[in-house]
Amino acid sequence: MGKNGYLPLFETKPAGGLVFFRSYAASIFIGICFICFHRVSYFPVTERWVWVGMFVAELWFSFYFFITVIVKWNPVFRSTFKDRLSSRFEEEELPGVDIFVCTADPRLEPPTMVVSTVLSVMAYDYPPHKLSVYLSDDGCSDLTFYALLEASRFAQLWLPFCRKLKVEPTSPEAYFQTTPEPVDDVFMANEWLIIKKSYEDMKNRIESITSLGKVPAYRRKEHNGFDEWDFVLSPHHHPSILQILIDGRDPNAIDIEGKALPTLVYLAREKRPQIHHNFKAGALNALAFDNLTENEIYGSLRVLMKLELAGFDGNGGPCYVGTGCVHRRESLSGMKYSEELAVELKAMKYDKKIIGSASFNEEDCKALASCTYEENTPWGKEKGVKYESLVEDVLTGMSIQSKGWRSVFFNPQREAFLGMGPTTLLDTLVQHKRWGEGELQILLSKHCPFVYGRPNMPLKLQLSYCIYNLWAPNCFATLYYVFVPSFCLFRGISLFPKISSSWGIPYLYVIFVHRVHSLVEYVWLGGTVRGWLNEQRMWMFKRTTSYLFAAIDHMLKLFGFSKSAFAITGKVADDDVHRRYEQEIMEFGTWSPMFTVLATLALFNLLGLIAVVTNNVAIGDARMKIFDVFGFQILLCYVLVFINLPIYQGMFFRKDSVSVWSTEPETRTADLRSDSKFQSVKLQACNTRFVFKEKRSKLVSCICNFPYLFIITYKLLKLLFENLD
């Protein structure tokens, strides 16, 4: 029983097994101390800079491990008691809820998927007269508006159906894909079929018009709102468009059972070429992931969403990650939290009496969505969602916390929100490149958590933000570890203690125990062993490509060579891509400089492994001695080759991969060890002409034209195979 005489609405519990985690963290720390002592004590006379580089990389990994431990040191989990809500509050005392759904491109985010999301939130178990749903269309597409118009009609059938059958999930697309027809009740089975057919008919109409690329004239006559597109010059040059498709205040806005419908609004904010529109952040201010495969081939946010955010909660409050979040309107309006404000908020009552017709309010509110409304105002700086950031969500959440507001993390047993994850490797890497660059931008700006959040954020929460702010810098230590040990195998340089040495024990312990803990953690959170392997693969791919390009791009921006760009992740794939995704076959898609980096590193490590194997076969009796001296580097090479198996498959065996380079030599060199023939291969590589299927900027070309290294490695590998034959 609470202080006010009511039963609590939620409870907070610390995570279980913290003793084991803290013991594990302490043992890893001891192992790291031994590794550091070995690096300092056994400093080589020759190749000292290579040794120093390894030591610096290991210090970086140790520091990042320390940040990770802080995040996971005291996670808390919350559970709610929904049945107690009605005993605490009358329906009229519940607050009004505005739900924002954002879309930007009907080609990448199909209108059928968007309206299915809209219908799912309209069907929430909440008083409809207190629920408003806004679709913000930054693509200003009449195709999306038409889809929303169809959804507003279908809602009259869908919402009563959801109430009657207690439908879960409330997205019609997800529901009909996962729920079989009820067979034990003939009446309900008939109604189920009727609703399904109505949804499929609506979906077919939307998809057929989307495929045409325009709304036919006879469809445009169905609603006056289509007249607004007569003034649209392009998606980036048009006036504000605001249409109230369902007015929750209208007594005639009811479903087939006579129950009120929630308000449904379409908004396309004004855009002009000469005025920056601030991407998604601007769209949100104008208004104020279920397709994963079983083994998550492109990785997932499983650990982040299910554990790390709970750790943030234990350290002072989770960060805002852009979706699945509920804000108090006052927190977004720039108000600082105080005890006086808390008293005012508790005394505040909800009142939704608005004078005027829907058409009057449409015209009146268009001014709020104009591109000049925010000029010389605090919006985007002190109020609302923050501008000038590629991760506007994280920056906005940090701003809210710095003003004294407290956030909490709630992850119900049934996922509250489901989204669409990328279905190609390139989309995944591009998405993480944007996230990594945005996080680095925050760290190196005045919004650094150690400065921006100092007044109201505890130190442990400020440190927690670094787990994401340091994504991009992680690339340098990772690249060093991926490339240098394999390179030193060719030179016969040992970078680790002997396997037989007692100094090898801390290395083995830290590597083995750290990875075992990662596997156990991943499986405990609901993943699979194969999913964990895919996660490790993507961990390396992202660090050696996404975060590398994120770091380079941000450095270029700091020196004024480029500007920020917001990349939309595709949510739709063609049939062949979708089929391979469902089969968990890695999809490479079109050419990208990121693939050049991946291919170079993959081939280099494969070449190193082949060289080691051939040397071991040739030497024979000295095989164990070589393994004793170079064992750690050989094992690392084996692991890297295993991680890169999809890369080799795509390069040498798959017929569906896009070939973006021509590397066929005009002559063949017989002896790999001949310096003169190596120079011949190098010359041929430099004369190779690349064929790219997409235009690239000169800047990107300059940065990414180390494919010559890739070509050299590729040709050496081919010659090595020929030599072995």
UniProtKB/TrEMBL annotation:
Q: Name one GO molecular function term.
A: cellulose synthase (UDP-forming) activity
Active-site annotation: D138, D393
Record keywords, A-Z? Cell wall biogenesis/degradation, Glycosyltransferase, Membrane, Transferase, Transmembrane, Transmembrane helix
Stated membrane topology is: Multi-pass membrane protein
Keyword Transmembrane appears in the UniProt entry: yes
Q: Which residues bind UDP-alpha-D-glucose?
A: E109, D138
- Write down the superkingdom of origin: Eukaryota
Q: Which Gene3D superfamilies match?
A: Spore Coat Polysaccharide Biosynthesis Protein SpsA, Chain A
Give the record's GO biological process terms.
Answer: cell wall organization; cellulose biosynthetic process
Gene Ontology cellular component annotations, sorted alphabetically: endomembrane system; membrane
Where does this protein reside within or beyond the cell? Endomembrane system
Keyword Transmembrane assigned: yes
Identification of the protein by name: Glycosyltransferase 2-like domain-containing protein
